[in-house]
Amino acid sequence: MGGRERRRYKRYTIDGVRGNVRFLADLKLINISVDGAAIETKKRLDVNREYNFKIDYKGNPLRAKGLVVWSQLIQSEKTETGDLVPIYRSGVKFIDTLDEKAIILMSFIEDNKVETPERRLGGVRCKIASAGSITVGYPYEYFVKKISLSGMEIETEHPLDPDSRHEMELALNEKVVTLTGRIVTCAKVPSENATTYHMGVEFTEISDEDRELLRHFLDTLE
């Protein structure tokens, strides 16, 4: 029917619902142990906050949660365009590297260490040569404008590339739904106070349990 919007699921306009996008960005690994690591990033990490880390090791992704125990600005680097980019160094304490994860992490350290391990209070740290792909997930807050069982429209201060996929958290009352979302559209919305971005998100991965939580939440909006 000409001009009529067709959607598989009913879409609801809502207010007051928010969540976090886990935006993955590259980091530089300075040294590492099974208990923690020193890293460098171009965005400051908040002390006493948990972040998700991912290391691609021999084709297998190793995921771990880390608590930032300290963070400081160490220098600024000039880009090709002449802009100055801050470089932060942070200390991270891993909080879930047990069993299989610890074994994989130990193998990663053994394969990539370049110097005699540095003995220090709380464990042994090794400097790393070629660490492959290592990323950290920054939590970027967003606000939900519209939502359905298959996707949502959100507002955030941080633009994301169309067709990129991100781990996301969605706070529904006292429950938190975790999912993977694909950015379908991203439109800049200028304003006098702060520029924001409206993005269309398609839910590509969500557990059956979390989908039921979302379905129940949408039923309350009827």
Notes on the structure:
The chain is mainly beta. The protein folds into 2 domains: 12-20 and 138-219, Thrombin, subunit H (Beta Barrel), CATH 2.40.10; 23-136, Beta Barrel (Thrombin, subunit H), CATH 2.40.10. Helices cover 11% and strands 55% of the residues. It contains 2 helices and 14 strands. It has helices at 100-112, 208-219; strands spanning 12-13, 18-26, 28-32, 36-41, 50-57, 60-78, 84-94, 118-120, 123-127, 134-147, 151-156, 165-172, 175-189, 196-206. It has a 6-stranded antiparallel barrel. A hairpin with a 3-residue loop joins strand 3 and strand 4 (36-41). The longest helix has 13 residues, at 100-112. It is globular.
Series of secondary-structure elements, N-terminal to C-terminal: EEEEEEEHEEEEEEEH
Outline = globular
**Category by helix and strand content:** mainly beta
CATH architecture of the largest domain: Beta Barrel
Distance between the termini: 26 Å
Identify the CATH class of the largest domain.
Mainly Beta
Number of strands: 14
**Arithmetic mean pLDDT:** 82
Note the beta-strand portion: over 45%
Poorly predicted parts: 1-5
- For this structure, the CATH topology of the largest domain is Thrombin, subunit H
Helix content: 10-25%
Spatial arrangement of strands, main beta sheet: 2-10-11-14-13-12
What assembly state would you assign to the polypeptide chains in this entry? single chain
Count of discrete alpha- or pi-helical segments spanning 4 or more residues: 2
